[in-house]
Amino acid sequence: MTRLLSNKKKKVGETPKKKGRKVTYAVSRPTLPKGMNYVIKKVPAHPLRFIATFNFDFVNEIKKSINEEGVEMFKNTIFGPYLNIPKCNFQGQITKCLLLLEVKHDNKDVLHVRHANGTVLQFGIKEFAIVTGLKCKGNVADFSYPESTPSRLLQRYFPDSTAGITKSRLIQRFVMGNWDTTQDAVQMAILYFINTFILCHLGETSIKIEEFLMVEDCTYELYPWGKIAFDKLITSLRQDFNQSKQMYRLFGMPYALNV
């Protein structure tokens, strides 16, 4: 015991170890040629951090909620290929770099990013469509229903909310599973995927009855989900990043920026 205790004594002249501090390095950008300017004129003194509320573990969540037959049926939908992507985490640093290197352009619906070699790269709805494979053309107004049209899924699984529900409630019900039919399971999985991965929005966001109806009659396959997702994403990228706020939330489909 004496020996063990003596080992804990500090050696004479020993300097106590200091806890390491996180070092923040200054962000620098290359000087632009004359006539070209950065969108963010001055690099903010505070670090920019970006978060996104999309479900990066949707593959496992879908497999847990619907049976194997349902998973196979989901693979045959327009969203089936997404089951093959690895578990994806959102890297906010990528978004930060893109925005700090974005140069001004008349078309605000396209990101113009200066590459290290001096060229300007573009990321607009065309590139978004290539990366995601989602339909980005079409008129949303074409997908409307008479006001009195009922939804079978809403009536069965949300009997007290026949006009629509929130994203949070959809998630809560989906993880419970226990579907009447495999078809119901697949259709609920489609709604779950759309609202937790393609349309990255807050839990209190309303999911309208039209989305249920489109999934039920399969017209969702023709709906321009990519156009909606891109518009939400590009709008969230147009925030004011020069204020004191350090954390920014992205909407739409931020995953496309990480591919």
TrEMBL record:
Record's signal peptide: none
Basic residues biased stretches: 1-11
Every DUF1985 domain range: 100-235
A Pfam family this chain is assigned to: DUF1985
Region (Disordered): 1-20
Protein name: DUF1985 domain-containing protein
Taxonomic source organism: Solanum tuberosum
Upper classification of the organism: Eukaryota, Viridiplantae, Streptophyta, Embryophyta, Tracheophyta
